[in-house]
Design a protein that fits this description.
CATH topology of the largest domain: Rossmann fold
Largest sheet: 7 strands, parallel
Radius of gyration: 26 Å
Number of helices: 22
Helix content: 25-40%
Number of domains: 3
Strand order of the largest sheet: 1-10-8-7-2-5-6
Oligomer: single chain
Distance between the termini: 65 Å
Strand content: 5-15%
CATH architecture of the largest domain: 3-Layer(aba) Sandwich
CATH class of the largest domain: Alpha Beta
Length: 620
Amino acid sequence: MTAALRNRPSTMFDRFTTRAKKSLSLARNEAIRLGHSSIDTEHLLLGILETPGSTGASVLERMGFDLDLIRREVTWPVDAGKSISPSATLPFAAEAKKALEYALVEAADLQHNWIGTEHLVLGLIREGTRKGLVSSAGRVLSKLGLEVSGFRRELLEVLGSDTGSTDTETVPRPVSSEAPCLRTQITKLKELKEAALVDGDFERAAALREQEYLLILELGKRQVAIDDGPGTIQTFVDRDDEVLREGRLGLLCNHASFDPWLGEYLFTALARGRNLQRLFVPEHGLFAELQDQIPLAGTELYSELGLDADIVSLYGETEGTLTARPELLEDLDALVVDIHDVGSRYYTYATTLSYIFDVLAEQQRSLPVFVLDRPNPAGRQVEGTILTPDYASFVGRAGLPHRHGLTIAELAAFYRDQTGAPVELIVHSMAEAAAPDARIPPSPNMPTPWTPHVYSGQCLLEGTNLNEGRGTTRPFEIFGAPWLDFLWHDQAPRATGAVLRPMQFVPTFHKHAGQLCHGFQILLTGEPYHSLAHTLQLLRWIRERANAFEWRTTEYEFRSDRPAIEILAGDPVLLDYLRGDASFESVVQALEAGEENWIRHAAGYTAAPLFRAKKVQDSP
């Protein structure tokens, strides 16, 4: 494998804003809908107009152009009877490529270090009139009297600049390689963003946050390449990428990495290319066949798969097996990651990825890491306090709150900064590729789409002698114990966003297996639910009423120096509350501070708005 493959250059798409990428995705959808085999300028224009919060569309509207009229004017003959598969890889037409190149030039002329929908509009105008040619999009814009100079003047006014000037606080100059200069620009952008939020100008605040993110990327010397649209496992396997075709690949995944359209696992699809060198298996096994804390000591049980690749367990009988040995990474040309996270720091799949980054940081390996990214099933809500190193473990990476609101690719960027691993992240977006009816539970006790929304709190029950629903069909939603019979006569703490249904159940395995348990099922109502705060209240309520209640004292996830509840709660204020030594008001204050702090910090890793549940209801 050549050095060029291992040190892949960044592309212009690295600098595309979130909305610009969204417009390209929508352009692809338009081309497929109309049966076109390539993405042309007309599709790009429609994509820009359909993108929510598009600066390009906003500038056109400010100039008095009727966006509905533009949509009607963009007409072309549809290929009769032609059907394009939603998973098809569509190339850009020559005119569209030229428009994208012009967008890059326009951004450079304006001394913008990002490429947004506004630059795409400028590129379409320029492409549509070059050498007398008039593309479909260019024809419409020219017919309406739109010129580059007029659009550029209006754009600079929108960005808060005088005509022709780029020395403005809202349009940063090209980034410097000097860290102090970058930090100054980042600080200024944060101030401008916060001022825009106070003024209620949310579109400007979002644009400023995107620019802040780009500068943070540069400061960390990161190269994050993000695909221009959602895809599938099949489109990932079919990528025209030399390192994927010819390089020695490592793969971190489990059974949830399955393409329902292809009818195949990612590990079998990559193995067909005969360059899958090593398959890394996280906790629970390749098919999530093992319960929690059950080691996978060997991988002989996967011999029937016939994979011509090493299969390595990253959850064995000792703590050392949680980390890939350096020699298992040294001979790889790239690592592919397709693990499904559920939004809480306890979930060990993401921790496994962070441990790999620890090794790469020690090696200082510039390894390309392809991440198949999916939406966070717990959404963008944030809960909890940020974990300090004193409480860090395999069920909690230091620096993360209990519920983080990031996708796995965004977590990977966070881990890379935290560890200092000099890896290049190449993100393959799977945002719209999953079939709702083909959902695969990523682990044995994460069976429904609602489980992640209660897991951020209910995982604390692992540090007690309460059954957290394991051995039932609704783990973490159901919980209880044989000695919880007082619940029928006492009022449990209530919370906004959920209702407690009193019930009885008999776990088939795990704690209190075969015994009649009294307990609750948590039913979500649709409002933001702060699972962590509610679980803290429930645990204290139970502890104060049940003499049989106990904290777990045995070794937990390879740590025996602290009780499990300390590792899981991971915060002195929360622990004091559970022990009866602090008020719930102090918990609310700690949660508010931790969540606001994390939201500010995480803005460097996601353009999506993170939020916290504003209403955390105390017990009556």
